[in-house]
Write a structure and sequence with these properties.
Blueprint lengths: L3 H19 L7 E5 L6 H8 L11 H11 L3 E9 L3 E8 L2 E6 L4 E5 L4 E2 L9 E5 L9 H6 L2 H7 L7 H5 L7 H11 L8 E4 L3 E5 L5 E5 L5 H18 L5 E3 L7 E3 L1
Parallel strand pairs: 1-3, 4-7, 7-8, 10-11
Antiparallel strand pairs: 2-3, 4-5, 5-6, 8-9, 9-10, 11-12
Length: 256
């Protein structure tokens, strides 16, 4: 025999389920954000794909994880899911202070040396013309905590996000960023800052050659004195080299 109260309860549950999962009243109709400057709601939802979905399926922790992976320029991400159809996202968006440009790629960095994707407008920034990708800091603590299986999985392109494949979210030594800015103080305005994977930081001299000082500005005054002596020697001899190195203050040299 059929129990009519049970049938009624089942019918009610079905109706409520249909209401929750299919009613427009419980579908995410807008993502509300705070703390963003260059990223837009459309940028976020292109990854999350939750607009128009039932609020029942939205997992705040999963949203936070997805955003952190896809947008390394975000930190302190907080997500709240509120009935009937509201998703709130707050985050701090890293502000770029430096452009690292190679022949193939443009990177932005924030003051902590974190690589973030060029996106939108960021105003005037120091630009470093580099011969290769930025030198990255290896987080030995994180690397040491990974199992062999995790390391192997990370090496498979299919396991990496677009952001990870591009290198966004990796960190360059902030000392290098600071040194690049300090180097400007010793150079004429509008001098082009350079980076070479072998010789470190430098600049394009007004005579046309490249000058390199290494990865830090240690003994910079002594090095600049050595450089001036080389310039005077080159002028006397009528030579125009392609590169001058003052990486080692006691052993400066030039290359034809």
């Amino acid at each position: 025999s059929v129990s009519y109260p049970n049938v009624a309860i089942s019918s009610l549950l079905i109706t409520l389920s249909d209401l929750f999962f299919n009613s427009a009243q419980f579908q995410v109709n807008q993502i509300q954000t705070s703390g963003l400057s260059r990223l837009t709601v459309n940028d976020l939802d292109a990854v999350l794909k939750i607009t128009g979905e039932s609020i029942i399926w939205v997992d705040a922790n999963q949203v936070k994880q997805d955003l952190s992976i896809a947008f390394p320029e975000l930190k302190d991400v907080e997500v709240s899911v509120e009935f009937p159809n509201n998703v709130q996202i707050s985050a701090f968006e890293r502000q770029p202070v430096l452009v690292w440009q190679t022949d193939k790629q443009i990177y932005w960095m924030d003051q902590d040396g974190v690589l973030i994707p060029p996106r939108g407008e960021a105003g005037e920034m120091l630009t470093i013309m580099a011969s290769g990708t930025p030198p990255l800091v290896v987080n030995e603590e994180v690397q040491g905590s990974l199992t062999n299986d995790q390391i192997e999985a990370k090496s498979q392109p299919s396991e990496l996000s677009v952001a990870e494949l591009q290198g966004w979210g990796e960190t360059v030594d902030p000392v290098l960023v600071e040194a690049a800015y300090q180097l400007l103080a010793f150079l004429p305005p509008s001098t082009q800052i350079l980076y070479n994977q072998t010789h470190g930081l430098g600049w394009k001299a007004e005579q046309g050659w490249d000058v390199f000082v290494g990865l830090t500005l240690n003994d910079i005054n002594y090095k600049l004195n050595a450089y001036q002596a080389i310039v005077e020697k080159l002028s006397r001899e009528g030579k125009n080299p392609s590169m001058v190195s003052i990486e080692f203050a006691t052993r400066p040299y030039y290359r034809e």
